[in-house]
Amino acid sequence: MFAxxxxxxxxxxxxxMTRLDRLGAEFTVRDIMQKNWKNLPRKNETTKVKVxxxxxxxxxxxxxxxxxGSLRKWEQNPKLN
Length: 81
Hints:
The chain is built from three helices and three strands, in the order H-E-H-H-E-E. The protein has 81 residues and is of the alpha+beta class. The protein has one domain: Arc Repressor Mutant, subunit A.
């Protein structure tokens, strides 16, 4: 059962945010999926969408941003490192 006030995108974003130190300065959705982190298993289209949604959520919080000129690469906000 789902909790009524549960925000799955925020939960996925928290998983990624707490593990950003395990990624390089620049990374892709594929890099995250290959880590096979709990609740974000790899090689699954649903997981890919979850990771993208979580990264877009983190982008709104200025934690990560898309690399300029790239549609696939993301980077950690250098002001937060």
